[in-house]
Amino acid sequence: MKVIDISRTIQADMEMYTGDTGPQITKVSGLDEGDSYNTSRITLGTHTGTHVDPPLHLIRDGAGIDRLPMNTLVGNARVLDLSSINRPIEAGDIGPLEAGEIILLKGGSDGSDGSEDLGDLGVSDVSADSGSSGDPGTSGGAYLTAACARYLVDIGIKTIGTDAISIGALDEEYEVHHTLLDARIVVIEGLEMPDVEAGDYFLVCLPLKIANGDGGPARAVLINEKK
Asked: In total, how many domains does the chain have?
């Protein structure tokens, strides 16, 4: 069995959605300073790094991150490699699907968070000001057109994930999100899959259980039981 981490590393200089502030990791106590333990404080947005969008992200009174059915985030999943396509993804690019599937899209870039070795963030002060911005539909990854989002709704898939910072193509981002979330399709954004091959896997994606959360940073892994 092979377990593949497909999550972005939380750090100050990671790619963020345009206008969002990067995470801040602040040392509270440290062994090097004579304390008995290392402790840090983390301040970050609900849509930082690899994260899950529940209906409440855009829909008033929609389900929050703490109310999502776990079978939308844990189960058999299929990775589609669309990395040869350097434009928004259309329905024809995805091909035939089945109702209830979990589909993960690997787009036209590596989805990298631009990470560098920053040492032990748990015992270091890291500024949030150095995070890089990602414009929806332009900064790499698999972005959907509104027509493609409607196709996914018509098929009745359960969950859609992407290595893009946001799933909607430029100028259609809001419509794409609304189309998917209105249909209660769970959206996973900010996956990291540069070395993941297309195929069938078992997905475990666990967002933080935030009461009435409009989103939740997540640790996501793929399990390949054949290796």
From this structure: 1
